[in-house]
Amino acid sequence: MSIRRREAKVKKISGKKNVRGKTYTYEYYTLPLNLYIPKSMVEKWGEDYIIERDEEKGMILIKSKKSESR
């Protein structure tokens, strides 16, 4: 079985976009491999996650470190 496991910290991305003369700001959260994490998940479980990649099945599993310790 080839499951790769690693720990990762969420990265907060902020940006600005101009549309028809108005400037909009936005924020979102990502993990390595360009995996998007919803803001509600970061608020509930924190910024530290465990990423497990199963190369045989082609699956990526994301777990919070807080949920692992329960």
Secondary structure class reads alpha+beta
Number of strands: 6
The proportion of residues forming helix, as a percent range, comes to 10-25%
Computed Rg = 15 Å
How far is the N terminus from the C terminus?
26 Å
The unreliable regions are none
Q: What strand order characterises the main sheet?
A: 1-5-6
Biggest pleated sheet: 3 strands, antiparallel
Mean pLDDT: 91
Number of helices: 2
Question: In sequence order, what are the helices and strands, one letter per element?
Answer: EEEEHEEH
Strand content: over 45%
- The 3D shape can be described as elongated
Describe it for me?
- The chain has 70 residues and is an alpha+beta fold.
- It contains 2 helices and 6 strands, in the order E-E-E-E-H-E-E-H.
- The chain has a 3-stranded antiparallel β-sheet with strand order 1-5-6. The chain has a 3-stranded antiparallel β-sheet with strand order 2-3-4.
- The longest helix is centred in the middle third of the chain and has 7 residues.
- 3% of the residues are buried.
- The model has no long low-confidence stretch (mean pLDDT 91).
